Amino acid sequence: MSKKEIKIVNIVCSASLGQDIPLIKLAEALPNTEYNPEQFPGLVMRIRDPKTSALIFSSGKIVSTGARSMKKVRESIQCIIKNIAKIKIKIKTIPKVNVQNMVASGSIGMDLNLNSLAMELENTEYEPEQFPGLVYKLPGTRATFLLFSNGKIVCTGTRSETKLREAVDKLVKNLKKTVKT
Fold first, then answer.
1. Phi, psi of 98, rounded to the nearest 5 degrees
2. What CA–CA distance (Å, rounded) separates 157 from 102?
3. Could you give the CA distance from residue 72 to residue 99 in angstroms, rounded to a whole number?
4. CA angle 17, 100, 79 (to 5 degrees)
5. Which CATH class is domain 108-180?
6. Which tens digit of pLDDT belongs to each residue from 144-168?
7. Distance between CA 173 and CA 133 in Å, rounded?
8. Do residues 9 and 65 make contact, with C-beta atoms less than 8 angstroms apart?
9. 80 and 47 in contact (C-beta within 8 Å)?
10. What average pLDDT score do residues 105-121 get?
11. 106 and 4 in contact (C-beta within 8 Å)?
12. Which homologous superfamily does the CATH classification assign to the domain defined by 12-99?
């Protein structure tokens, strides 16, 4: 059996700039934005480096997505603050970042019999005619896994790298128990 490898592919987080932001002015000043208040109350800002996108609301609340590490999340927020400074608005506080969700993918290095796992594990959904992966909500955690027969996995729902690693370890433990029965 080979070693498990997992890496974060997306971090969704929220933060507050602590003041109102004039979105129309921001949209007019910056080329990397989209703002259609009739369709959605937030402005979409795309950042090239780090490659992320953010929803910015007039209240100063932000939802950022696309970063692959907490370092990149912080760089992205700094980029947003720099962009807002271009319309002469100075953000005085350092926004507190709250991770809402981490998405990771990788491999656990073992072949999986999804049919038997669907029977043995609780909290699973498996409909191979519609989707080749098994959905498994890991008991006692926020984590939900997509499992594939080749041992590839996707994990969503955790809010820290520590919780993510713990969830993957617990998953492997549960799978090994099931395989042995």
1. -115, 120
2. 6
3. 13
4. 40
5. alpha beta
6. 999 999 999 999 999 999 999 999 9
7. 19
8. no
9. yes
10. 95
11. yes
12. TATA-Binding Protein (3.30.310.10)
147 CB-near residues (< 8 Å, 6+ apart): 112, 114, 117, 133, 134, 135, 136, 153
Report the number of secondary-structure helices (H) and strands (E) in the chain. Answer: 4, 10
What pLDDT digit, counting tens, does each position of 54-93 carry? 999 999 999 999 999 999 999 999 999 999 999 999 998 8
C-alpha span between 93 and 115 (Å, rounded): 52
Q: Which helix (H) or strand (E) holds 131?
A: none
The strand pair at 98-107 and 61-67 is best described as: unpaired
Which of 147, 19, 163 is CA-nearest to residue 92? 19
Regarding pTM above 0.85, the answer is yes
Q: What are the boundaries of each domain within the chain? A: 12-99, 108-180
User: Does the CA dihedral 68-70-71-73 come out positive or negative?
Assistant: positive
Query: Strands of 5-16's sheet, edge to edge?
Result: 33-34, 43-47, 52-56, 61-67, 5-16, 98-107, 152-158, 144-147, 134-137, 124-125
Which of the 8 DSSP states describes residue 29?
H
Say yes or no: do domains 12-99 and 108-180 share a fold: yes
